[in-house]
């Protein structure tokens, strides 16, 4: 029995995602943790987000302070709260999405490029 085209497309997509995750395991792991911790904090009162190293060491705020809280506010659709915690979220989040899209597009070109056999 032949596989359905939709099933083949799903297998091809999952193979691509798996190969991308293996090559970029550090980014995928850290990104997954950050997404999970932000969703957990926005849905409950449990806070497992990473503390700011700069604030912990120097007792001063850095330009990135409040980005996690701003992301939690965005998940809750509170644009004013996100802006008040850190306005850079409206620049950093779209830039991050574009960077991930561009990186995955480059990887897809390499992933789908024809493999040449070595001449012996």
Can you give a write-up of this model?
- This protein has a domain at 19-97.
- It is built from 6 helices and no strands.
- The chain has helices at residues 5-23, 25-43, 53-58, 67-75, 79-85, 89-112.
- Helix 1 packs across helix 2 (25-43) and helix 2 crosses helix 4.
- The radius of gyration is 20 Å and the shape is elongated.
- It starts with a helix and ends in an 8-residue tail after the last helix.
- 8% of the residues are buried.
The best one-word shape is: elongated
| Chain-averaged pLDDT | 89
User: Strand share of the residues?
Assistant: under 5%
Q: What portion of residues is helical?
A: over 70%
Structural class: mainly alpha
**Strand element count:** 0
Overall radius of gyration: 20 Å
What is the string of SSEs from the N terminus onward?
Answer: HHHHHH
Largest sheet: none
The helix count comes to: 6
The CA-CA distance between the termini, in Å, is 37 Å
* pLDDT < 50 runs, ≥5 residues: none
Overview in brief:
With 120 residues, this protein is mostly helical. It has helices at 5-23, 25-43, 53-58, 67-75, 79-85, 89-112.
